[in-house]
Protein backbone atom coordinates (compact mmCIF):
# COMPACT_ATOMS: atom_id res chain seq x y z
CA UNK A 1 0.00 0.00 0.00
CA UNK A 2 1.45 3.32 -1.04
CA UNK A 3 0.50 6.85 -0.11
CA UNK A 4 -1.71 8.16 -2.91
CA UNK A 5 -1.15 11.63 -4.25
CA UNK A 6 -3.13 11.36 -7.47
CA UNK A 7 -6.39 13.25 -7.64
CA UNK A 8 -9.22 10.75 -7.67
CA UNK A 9 -12.90 10.96 -8.52
CA UNK A 10 -15.86 8.93 -7.39
CA UNK A 11 -18.88 8.63 -9.70
CA UNK A 12 -22.34 7.76 -8.41
CA UNK A 13 -25.70 7.42 -10.08
CA UNK A 14 -28.31 8.08 -7.42
CA UNK A 15 -31.56 6.27 -6.76
CA UNK A 16 -30.53 2.78 -5.66
CA UNK A 17 -31.88 1.37 -2.38
CA UNK A 18 -29.11 -0.11 -0.20
CA UNK A 19 -29.68 -3.63 1.08
CA UNK A 20 -27.43 -6.26 2.58
CA UNK A 21 -24.81 -6.86 5.17
CA UNK A 22 -21.39 -5.30 5.65
CA UNK A 23 -18.50 -5.85 8.08
CA UNK A 24 -17.13 -2.77 9.81
CA UNK A 25 -13.35 -2.44 10.06
CA UNK A 26 -11.03 -1.10 12.74
CA UNK A 27 -11.12 2.59 13.64
CA UNK A 28 -8.49 4.94 12.20
CA UNK A 29 -8.60 7.14 15.28
CA UNK A 30 -7.88 4.14 17.51
CA UNK A 31 -5.26 2.45 15.30
CA UNK A 32 -3.06 5.56 15.04
CA UNK A 33 -2.60 6.24 18.78
CA UNK A 34 -2.06 2.52 19.39
CA UNK A 35 0.75 2.57 16.83
CA UNK A 36 2.30 5.64 18.49
CA UNK A 37 2.11 3.88 21.88
CA UNK A 38 4.59 1.28 20.58
CA UNK A 39 7.27 3.97 21.02
CA UNK A 40 6.87 3.61 24.79
CA UNK A 41 8.61 0.23 24.85
CA UNK A 42 11.58 -1.55 23.31
CA UNK A 43 9.50 -4.76 23.09
CA UNK A 44 7.47 -5.88 20.07
CA UNK A 45 3.87 -4.65 19.78
CA UNK A 46 1.29 -6.41 17.60
CA UNK A 47 -1.90 -4.66 16.55
CA UNK A 48 -4.75 -6.57 14.87
CA UNK A 49 -7.85 -5.36 13.00
CA UNK A 50 -5.84 -2.47 11.55
CA UNK A 51 -7.77 -0.65 8.80
CA UNK A 52 -5.92 -0.28 5.49
CA UNK A 53 -5.91 3.47 5.26
CA UNK A 54 -3.55 6.11 4.01
CA UNK A 55 -3.13 7.49 7.55
CA UNK A 56 -1.99 4.06 8.75
CA UNK A 57 0.62 4.02 5.98
CA UNK A 58 1.72 7.52 6.97
CA UNK A 59 2.11 6.42 10.62
CA UNK A 60 4.02 3.32 9.44
CA UNK A 61 6.48 5.47 7.49
CA UNK A 62 6.74 8.01 10.29
CA UNK A 63 7.64 5.35 12.88
CA UNK A 64 10.17 3.84 10.46
CA UNK A 65 11.74 7.27 9.96
CA UNK A 66 12.27 7.45 13.74
CA UNK A 67 14.08 4.11 13.62
CA UNK A 68 11.33 1.65 14.58
CA UNK A 69 10.90 -1.64 12.73
CA UNK A 70 7.38 -1.71 11.35
CA UNK A 71 5.78 -4.51 9.37
CA UNK A 72 2.31 -3.74 7.98
CA UNK A 73 0.67 -6.99 6.89
CA UNK A 74 -2.11 -5.87 4.56
CA UNK A 75 -3.44 -9.44 4.09
CA UNK A 76 -4.03 -9.93 7.81
CA UNK A 77 -4.81 -6.31 8.73
CA UNK A 78 -2.02 -6.51 11.26
CA UNK A 79 0.95 -4.32 12.14
CA UNK A 80 4.03 -5.33 14.14
CA UNK A 81 6.15 -2.57 15.62
CA UNK A 82 9.45 -2.78 17.46
CA UNK A 83 10.88 0.51 18.63
CA UNK A 84 14.07 -0.87 20.22
CA UNK A 85 16.52 1.48 18.51
CA UNK A 86 15.18 4.96 18.03
CA UNK A 87 17.54 7.05 15.91
CA UNK A 88 15.60 10.26 15.47
CA UNK A 89 13.37 12.32 17.73
CA UNK A 90 11.95 14.39 14.92
CA UNK A 91 9.23 12.89 12.69
CA UNK A 92 9.61 14.01 9.05
CA UNK A 93 7.68 17.28 8.59
CA UNK A 94 6.13 16.11 5.31
CA UNK A 95 4.49 13.21 7.17
CA UNK A 96 3.51 15.27 10.23
CA UNK A 97 1.76 17.69 7.88
CA UNK A 98 -0.53 14.96 6.59
CA UNK A 99 -2.56 14.17 9.69
CA UNK A 100 -3.32 15.30 13.22
CA UNK A 101 -2.40 11.97 14.81
CA UNK A 102 1.24 12.43 13.80
CA UNK A 103 1.65 14.64 16.88
CA UNK A 104 0.95 11.59 19.06
CA UNK A 105 4.57 10.50 18.81
CA UNK A 106 5.72 13.51 20.86
CA UNK A 107 4.30 12.30 24.22
CA UNK A 108 5.89 8.83 24.00
CA UNK A 109 9.25 10.19 22.70
CA UNK A 110 9.41 12.75 25.50
CA UNK A 111 8.46 10.22 28.19
CA UNK A 112 10.88 7.50 27.07
CA UNK A 113 13.83 9.49 25.66
CA UNK A 114 13.40 12.99 27.12
CA UNK A 115 13.29 14.72 23.76
CA UNK A 116 11.10 15.34 20.75
CA UNK A 117 10.83 17.92 18.02
CA UNK A 118 7.91 18.44 15.66
CA UNK A 119 6.20 20.91 13.39
CA UNK A 120 2.51 21.58 14.23
CA UNK A 121 0.47 18.64 12.94
CA UNK A 122 -1.66 18.78 9.80
CA UNK A 123 -4.97 17.05 9.20
CA UNK A 124 -8.36 18.11 7.95
CA UNK A 125 -8.91 21.87 7.75
CA UNK A 126 -11.75 22.38 10.19
CA UNK A 127 -10.81 25.73 11.73
CA UNK A 128 -8.46 26.26 14.63
CA UNK A 129 -6.60 23.10 15.72
CA UNK A 130 -3.91 24.07 18.24
CA UNK A 131 -1.89 21.66 20.40
CA UNK A 132 -1.76 24.02 23.40
CA UNK A 133 -3.34 21.44 25.69
CA UNK A 134 -0.53 18.98 24.93
CA UNK A 135 2.20 21.63 25.36
CA UNK A 136 0.80 22.93 28.65
CA UNK A 137 0.59 19.35 29.89
CA UNK A 138 4.21 18.63 28.88
CA UNK A 139 5.32 21.74 30.81
CA UNK A 140 3.40 20.52 33.87
CA UNK A 141 5.36 17.26 33.67
CA UNK A 142 8.52 19.38 33.99
CA UNK A 143 9.52 19.43 30.32
CA UNK A 144 11.02 22.46 28.62
CA UNK A 145 8.86 23.43 25.68
CA UNK A 146 10.35 25.83 23.20
CA UNK A 147 8.18 27.22 20.45
CA UNK A 148 10.49 27.71 17.47
CA UNK A 149 9.89 29.22 14.04
CA UNK A 150 9.20 25.79 12.60
CA UNK A 151 7.40 24.14 15.50
CA UNK A 152 8.16 22.76 18.94
CA UNK A 153 11.30 21.56 20.68
CA UNK A 154 10.68 19.44 23.79
CA UNK A 155 13.28 18.37 26.35
CA UNK A 156 13.10 16.86 29.80
CA UNK A 157 14.63 14.53 32.32
CA UNK A 158 12.27 11.90 33.63
CA UNK A 159 8.77 13.36 33.55
CA UNK A 160 7.26 14.13 36.96
CA UNK A 161 3.71 13.10 37.76
CA UNK A 162 1.42 16.11 38.22
CA UNK A 163 -2.15 17.35 38.07
CA UNK A 164 -3.16 18.60 34.64
CA UNK A 165 -6.33 20.57 34.00
CA UNK A 166 -7.19 20.49 30.31
CA UNK A 167 -8.81 23.75 29.17
CA UNK A 168 -10.62 21.75 26.50
CA UNK A 169 -11.12 17.96 26.52
CA UNK A 170 -8.93 17.54 23.43
CA UNK A 171 -9.08 14.08 21.92
CA UNK A 172 -5.48 13.71 20.78
CA UNK A 173 -4.33 15.94 23.66
CA UNK A 174 -5.75 13.46 26.17
CA UNK A 175 -4.06 10.57 24.32
CA UNK A 176 -0.69 12.31 24.19
CA UNK A 177 -0.70 13.21 27.90
CA UNK A 178 -2.06 9.80 28.91
CA UNK A 179 0.82 8.05 27.11
CA UNK A 180 3.39 10.40 28.63
CA UNK A 181 1.94 9.93 32.13
CA UNK A 182 2.47 6.15 31.97
CA UNK A 183 6.28 6.55 32.22
CA UNK A 184 6.30 9.61 34.51
CA UNK A 185 7.55 9.35 38.07
CA UNK A 186 4.63 9.32 40.50
CA UNK A 187 0.95 10.01 40.02
CA UNK A 188 -0.61 12.07 37.24
CA UNK A 189 -4.23 13.23 37.32
CA UNK A 190 -5.75 14.51 34.09
CA UNK A 191 -8.85 16.62 34.74
CA UNK A 192 -11.40 17.49 32.04
CA UNK A 193 -10.05 14.58 30.01
CA UNK A 194 -11.78 13.47 26.81
CA UNK A 195 -13.76 10.22 26.96
CA UNK A 196 -14.01 9.04 23.34
CA UNK A 197 -14.10 5.23 22.86
CA UNK A 198 -10.81 5.46 20.93
CA UNK A 199 -9.14 6.93 24.02
CA UNK A 200 -10.48 4.11 26.17
CA UNK A 201 -9.13 1.62 23.60
CA UNK A 202 -5.70 3.25 23.85
CA UNK A 203 -5.86 3.22 27.66
CA UNK A 204 -6.67 -0.49 27.67
CA UNK A 205 -3.70 -1.18 25.40
CA UNK A 206 -1.48 0.82 27.75
CA UNK A 207 -2.84 -1.23 30.67
CA UNK A 208 -1.91 -4.36 28.70
CA UNK A 209 1.62 -2.90 28.49
CA UNK A 210 1.74 -2.63 32.28
CA UNK A 211 0.49 0.93 32.76
CA UNK A 212 -1.54 1.66 35.89
CA UNK A 213 -4.53 3.74 34.81
CA UNK A 214 -7.88 4.48 36.45
CA UNK A 215 -10.84 6.49 35.24
CA UNK A 216 -10.72 5.68 31.52
CA UNK A 217 -13.90 6.89 29.84
CA UNK A 218 -14.44 9.59 32.49
CA UNK A 219 -13.25 13.19 32.70
CA UNK A 220 -10.76 12.33 35.50
CA UNK A 221 -7.97 9.92 34.56
CA UNK A 222 -5.41 8.93 37.18
CA UNK A 223 -2.12 7.29 36.18
CA UNK A 224 0.50 5.82 38.52
CA UNK A 225 3.73 6.01 36.53
CA UNK A 226 5.89 2.92 36.05
CA UNK A 227 9.59 2.57 35.15
CA UNK A 228 9.07 0.58 31.98
CA UNK A 229 6.34 -0.82 29.77
CA UNK A 230 6.25 -4.13 27.92
CA UNK A 231 5.00 -4.91 24.41
CA UNK A 232 1.33 -5.48 23.63
CA UNK A 233 -0.88 -7.69 21.51
CA UNK A 234 -4.17 -5.91 20.93
CA UNK A 235 -7.01 -5.32 18.53
CA UNK A 236 -8.34 -2.04 17.18
CA UNK A 237 -11.93 -1.30 18.16
CA UNK A 238 -14.62 -1.14 15.43
CA UNK A 239 -14.90 2.16 13.59
CA UNK A 240 -18.00 4.00 14.82
CA UNK A 241 -17.50 6.56 12.04
CA UNK A 242 -17.43 4.03 9.20
CA UNK A 243 -20.45 2.33 10.79
CA UNK A 244 -22.22 5.67 11.20
CA UNK A 245 -21.60 6.69 7.60
CA UNK A 246 -23.03 3.40 6.29
CA UNK A 247 -25.97 3.57 8.72
CA UNK A 248 -26.87 7.02 7.40
CA UNK A 249 -26.49 5.71 3.82
CA UNK A 250 -29.02 2.96 4.62
CA UNK A 251 -31.48 5.48 6.09
CA UNK A 252 -31.35 8.07 3.30
CA UNK A 253 -31.87 5.43 0.56
CA UNK A 254 -34.77 3.93 2.57
CA UNK A 255 -32.91 0.66 2.53
CA UNK A 256 -32.19 -2.08 5.04
CA UNK A 257 -28.60 -2.78 6.02
CA UNK A 258 -26.97 -4.88 8.75
CA UNK A 259 -23.62 -3.64 10.02
CA UNK A 260 -21.53 -6.36 11.68
CA UNK A 261 -18.77 -5.84 14.28
CA UNK A 262 -20.14 -2.64 15.80
CA UNK A 263 -20.33 -1.65 19.47
CA UNK A 264 -23.76 -0.50 20.61
CA UNK A 265 -22.53 1.91 23.32
CA UNK A 266 -20.23 3.71 20.86
CA UNK A 267 -23.13 4.24 18.46
CA UNK A 268 -25.63 5.57 21.03
CA UNK A 269 -25.56 9.24 19.95
CA UNK A 270 -26.22 8.33 16.30
CA UNK A 271 -28.77 5.64 17.17
CA UNK A 272 -30.83 8.21 19.10
CA UNK A 273 -30.75 10.72 16.29
CA UNK A 274 -31.56 8.17 13.57
CA UNK A 275 -34.60 7.00 15.54
CA UNK A 276 -35.67 10.59 16.18
CA UNK A 277 -35.49 11.18 12.42
CA UNK A 278 -37.82 8.22 11.77
CA UNK A 279 -35.33 5.46 10.93
CA UNK A 280 -35.41 2.11 12.73
CA UNK A 281 -32.32 0.78 14.50
CA UNK A 282 -32.22 -2.73 15.94
CA UNK A 283 -29.37 -4.34 17.84
CA UNK A 284 -28.34 -7.96 18.16
CA UNK A 285 -25.06 -8.30 20.02
CA UNK A 286 -22.49 -6.61 17.78
CA UNK A 287 -24.77 -6.23 14.75
CA UNK A 288 -26.76 -3.11 13.99
CA UNK A 289 -29.71 -3.21 11.60
CA UNK A 290 -30.77 0.11 10.10
CA UNK A 291 -33.90 0.53 7.98
CA UNK A 292 -36.08 3.44 6.98
CA UNK A 293 -39.27 2.20 5.35
CA UNK A 294 -41.17 5.44 5.97
CA UNK A 295 -40.49 9.17 5.70
CA UNK A 296 -37.62 10.90 7.49
CA UNK A 297 -38.32 13.87 9.76
CA UNK A 298 -36.43 17.05 10.63
CA UNK A 299 -34.24 16.94 13.69
CA UNK A 300 -31.42 18.85 15.41
CA UNK A 301 -27.86 17.71 16.06
CA UNK A 302 -25.23 19.34 18.23
CA UNK A 303 -21.69 18.07 17.56
CA UNK A 304 -19.91 17.76 20.90
CA UNK A 305 -17.18 15.67 22.55
CA UNK A 306 -18.27 12.07 23.33
CA UNK A 307 -20.93 11.10 24.34
CA UNK A 308 -22.19 14.07 22.33
CA UNK A 309 -22.99 13.62 18.66
CA UNK A 310 -19.69 12.96 16.78
CA UNK A 311 -18.48 15.94 14.78
CA UNK A 312 -17.02 13.44 12.28
CA UNK A 313 -20.60 12.36 11.37
CA UNK A 314 -22.04 15.87 11.29
CA UNK A 315 -21.60 16.32 7.52
CA UNK A 316 -23.02 12.88 6.71
CA UNK A 317 -26.05 13.58 8.90
CA UNK A 318 -26.63 16.84 6.99
CA UNK A 319 -27.44 14.72 3.92
CA UNK A 320 -30.15 12.94 5.91
CA UNK A 321 -31.54 16.35 6.87
CA UNK A 322 -31.86 17.32 3.19
CA UNK A 323 -34.12 14.26 2.81
CA UNK A 324 -36.17 14.87 5.97
CA UNK A 325 -39.51 16.68 6.18
CA UNK A 326 -39.20 20.08 7.82
CA UNK A 327 -36.52 22.41 9.19
CA UNK A 328 -33.45 20.70 10.67
CA UNK A 329 -30.67 22.42 12.57
CA UNK A 330 -26.97 21.68 12.97
CA UNK A 331 -24.86 23.19 15.72
CA UNK A 332 -21.16 22.30 15.29
CA UNK A 333 -19.70 22.98 18.72
CA UNK A 334 -16.35 21.17 18.38
CA UNK A 335 -14.68 22.90 15.42
CA UNK A 336 -15.12 26.54 14.43
CA UNK A 337 -15.13 25.98 10.65
CA UNK A 338 -16.62 22.61 9.79
CA UNK A 339 -19.61 23.62 7.68
CA UNK A 340 -17.75 24.61 4.51
CA UNK A 341 -19.02 21.47 2.75
CA UNK A 342 -22.55 22.95 2.83
CA UNK A 343 -21.74 25.08 -0.23
CA UNK A 344 -21.06 21.85 -2.17
CA UNK A 345 -24.42 20.42 -1.05
CA UNK A 346 -26.07 23.70 -2.07
CA UNK A 347 -24.62 23.19 -5.55
CA UNK A 348 -26.60 19.95 -5.63
CA UNK A 349 -29.79 21.84 -4.74
CA UNK A 350 -29.78 21.47 -0.95
CA UNK A 351 -31.68 24.24 0.87
CA UNK A 352 -29.20 25.25 3.56
CA UNK A 353 -28.99 28.54 5.39
CA UNK A 354 -25.72 29.18 7.22
CA UNK A 355 -26.48 31.15 10.37
CA UNK A 356 -22.75 31.48 11.08
CA UNK A 357 -19.65 29.28 10.71
CA UNK A 358 -21.01 26.82 13.29
CA UNK A 359 -24.76 26.77 12.70
CA UNK A 360 -26.89 25.76 9.75
CA UNK A 361 -30.60 25.32 9.05
CA UNK A 362 -31.54 22.69 6.47
CA UNK A 363 -34.99 22.54 4.83
CA UNK A 364 -36.22 19.28 3.38
CA UNK A 365 -37.08 17.16 1.67
CA UNK A 366 -35.28 18.18 -1.50
CA UNK A 367 -34.51 16.12 -4.60
CA UNK A 368 -30.76 16.65 -4.92
CA UNK A 369 -29.32 16.97 -8.43
CA UNK A 370 -26.14 15.17 -9.43
CA UNK A 371 -23.24 17.41 -10.42
CA UNK A 372 -19.47 17.73 -9.86
CA UNK A 373 -18.64 18.56 -6.24
CA UNK A 374 -15.36 18.75 -4.34
CA UNK A 375 -14.34 16.80 -1.23
CA UNK A 376 -12.58 19.17 1.19
CA UNK A 377 -11.51 16.54 3.72
CA UNK A 378 -12.32 12.98 4.83
CA UNK A 379 -15.81 13.45 6.23
CA UNK A 380 -17.03 16.08 3.77
CA UNK A 381 -15.97 13.60 1.08
CA UNK A 382 -18.14 10.91 2.66
CA UNK A 383 -21.02 13.39 2.93
CA UNK A 384 -20.87 14.14 -0.81
CA UNK A 385 -20.71 10.44 -1.67
CA UNK A 386 -23.89 9.92 0.40
CA UNK A 387 -25.53 12.89 -1.32
CA UNK A 388 -24.72 11.23 -4.64
CA UNK A 389 -26.61 8.09 -3.55
CA UNK A 390 -29.90 10.02 -3.37
CA UNK A 391 -29.29 12.58 -6.13
CA UNK A 392 -30.91 12.51 -9.51
CA UNK A 393 -28.41 11.54 -12.21
CA UNK A 394 -24.63 11.45 -11.94
CA UNK A 395 -22.60 12.94 -9.09
CA UNK A 396 -18.84 13.24 -9.43
CA UNK A 397 -16.92 13.73 -6.21
CA UNK A 398 -13.63 15.44 -7.09
CA UNK A 399 -10.53 15.15 -4.88
CA UNK A 400 -11.90 11.93 -3.49
CA UNK A 401 -8.41 10.89 -2.39
CA UNK A 402 -9.29 12.46 0.99
CA UNK A 403 -11.56 9.49 1.65
CA UNK A 404 -8.67 7.03 1.53
CA UNK A 405 -7.28 8.65 4.67
CA UNK A 406 -10.23 7.50 6.74
CA UNK A 407 -12.36 4.88 4.97
CA UNK A 408 -11.18 1.46 3.82
CA UNK A 409 -12.96 0.78 0.55
CA UNK A 410 -16.11 2.85 1.17
CA UNK A 411 -16.84 2.68 -2.56
CA UNK A 412 -16.57 -1.13 -2.60
CA UNK A 413 -18.76 -1.49 0.48
CA UNK A 414 -21.48 0.78 -0.90
CA UNK A 415 -21.35 -1.03 -4.26
CA UNK A 416 -21.73 -4.39 -2.48
CA UNK A 417 -24.89 -2.98 -0.83
CA UNK A 418 -26.31 -2.12 -4.26
CA UNK A 419 -25.11 1.44 -4.92
CA UNK A 420 -24.16 2.42 -8.46
CA UNK A 421 -20.74 3.80 -7.54
CA UNK A 422 -17.17 3.47 -8.72
CA UNK A 423 -13.83 5.24 -8.89
CA UNK A 424 -13.31 7.14 -12.12
C1 LIG B 1 -6.76 11.76 14.76
C2 LIG B 1 -7.98 12.01 15.54
O1 LIG B 1 -8.30 11.31 16.50
N1 LIG B 1 -8.75 13.01 15.11
C3 LIG B 1 -10.00 13.28 15.79
C4 LIG B 1 -9.73 14.19 16.96
O2 LIG B 1 -9.14 15.39 16.47
P1 LIG B 1 -8.41 16.37 17.49
O3 LIG B 1 -7.67 15.59 18.49
O4 LIG B 1 -7.73 17.37 16.66
O5 LIG B 1 -9.61 17.06 18.22
P2 LIG B 1 -9.45 17.96 19.52
O6 LIG B 1 -10.36 17.35 20.53
O7 LIG B 1 -8.03 18.19 19.87
O8 LIG B 1 -10.02 19.33 19.01
C5 LIG B 1 -11.38 19.69 19.17
C6 LIG B 1 -11.48 21.16 19.51
O9 LIG B 1 -10.63 21.44 20.59
C7 LIG B 1 -9.91 22.61 20.34
N2 LIG B 1 -8.59 22.51 21.01
C8 LIG B 1 -7.81 21.42 20.77
C9 LIG B 1 -6.56 21.35 21.32
C10 LIG B 1 -6.10 22.41 22.11
O10 LIG B 1 -4.99 22.42 22.61
N3 LIG B 1 -6.92 23.47 22.33
C11 LIG B 1 -8.17 23.55 21.79
O11 LIG B 1 -8.89 24.51 21.99
C12 LIG B 1 -9.77 22.65 18.82
O12 LIG B 1 -9.55 23.96 18.37
C13 LIG B 1 -11.09 22.09 18.36
O13 LIG B 1 -12.02 23.13 18.25
O14 LIG B 1 -10.94 14.48 17.62
C14 LIG B 1 -11.88 15.19 16.82
C15 LIG B 1 -13.08 15.49 17.68
O15 LIG B 1 -13.70 14.32 18.08
C16 LIG B 1 -12.22 14.38 15.58
O16 LIG B 1 -13.00 15.19 14.71
C17 LIG B 1 -10.98 13.94 14.83
O17 LIG B 1 -11.31 12.99 13.84
C1 LIG C 1 -10.63 15.09 11.37
C2 LIG C 1 -10.19 13.87 11.06
O1 LIG C 1 -8.88 13.50 10.97
P1 LIG C 1 -7.63 14.43 11.40
O2 LIG C 1 -7.83 14.64 12.86
O3 LIG C 1 -6.39 13.67 11.08
O4 LIG C 1 -7.73 15.70 10.65
C3 LIG C 1 -11.17 12.82 10.76
O5 LIG C 1 -10.82 11.63 10.85
O6 LIG C 1 -12.31 13.14 10.40
TrEMBL record:
Example of a GO cellular component annotation carried by this entry: cytoplasm
First-level EC class: transferase
Biological process terms in GO annotation: cell division; cell wall organization; peptidoglycan biosynthetic process; regulation of cell shape; UDP-N-acetylgalactosamine biosynthetic process
Organism whose genome encodes this protein: Thermomicrobium roseum (strain ATCC 27502 / DSM 5159 / P-2)
Chain sites annotated for binding UDP-N-acetyl-alpha-D-glucosamine: 100, 312, 334
A single MF term (Gene Ontology): UDP-N-acetylglucosamine 1-carboxyvinyltransferase activity
PTM sites of type 2-(S-cysteinyl)pyruvic acid O-phosphothioketal: 124
Location(s) in or outside the cell: Cytoplasm
Function in brief: Cell wall formation. Adds enolpyruvyl to UDP-N-acetylglucosamine.
Domain (Enolpyruvate transferase): residue spans on this chain: 17-414
Annotated catalysed reactions: phosphoenolpyruvate + UDP-N-acetyl-alpha-D-glucosamine = UDP-N-acetyl-3-O-(1-carboxyvinyl)-alpha-D-glucosamine + phosphate
Keyword Cell cycle: yes
Gene name linked to the record: murA
SUPFAM superfamilies with a match to the protein in the record: EPT/RTPC-like
Pathway: Cell wall biogenesis; peptidoglycan biosynthesis
Lineage, opening ranks: Bacteria, Pseudomonadati, Thermomicrobiota, Thermomicrobia, Thermomicrobiales
Annotated Pfam families: EPSP_synthase
E.C. designation(s): 2.5.1.7
Name of the featured protein: UDP-N-acetylglucosamine 1-carboxyvinyltransferase
Positions bound to phosphoenolpyruvate: 28-29
Amino acid sequence: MAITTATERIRTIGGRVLRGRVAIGGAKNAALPAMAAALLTEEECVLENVPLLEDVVVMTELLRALGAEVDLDTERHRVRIRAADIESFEPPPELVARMRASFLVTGPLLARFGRARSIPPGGCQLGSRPVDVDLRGFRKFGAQVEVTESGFELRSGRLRGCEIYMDYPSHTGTENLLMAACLAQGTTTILNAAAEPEIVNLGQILQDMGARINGLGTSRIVVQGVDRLRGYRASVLPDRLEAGTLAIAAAITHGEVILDHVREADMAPLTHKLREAGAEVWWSESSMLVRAPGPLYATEIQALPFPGFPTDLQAAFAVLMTQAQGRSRIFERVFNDRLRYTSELQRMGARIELIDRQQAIIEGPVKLQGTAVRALDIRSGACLVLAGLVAEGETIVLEAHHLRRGYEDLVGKLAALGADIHYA
